[in-house]
Amino acid sequence: MNVLVQYHNRCQLCRTPLRVVATQRAVLRPLYAAGADDMLEVYPTVADALRRPHVL
């Protein structure tokens, strides 16, 4: 989790979005429990993540 937050911060500095693709509860549950889903963009598929426009 800490690594994701660190990379999120780095990506913001570079004005590049960090998109997380995950569908398994074992991955999603800790993200939601920690509130990281408010900070990170979480998508169910790579196609969904790539379809989103690059807006920072």
UniProtKB/TrEMBL annotation:
Location of the STAS domain: 2-49
InterPro entries with a match to the protein in the record: STAS_dom, STAS_dom_sf
Pfam families assigned: STAS
Cross-referenced SUPFAM superfamilies: SpoIIaa-like (SSF52091)
Protein name: STAS domain-containing protein
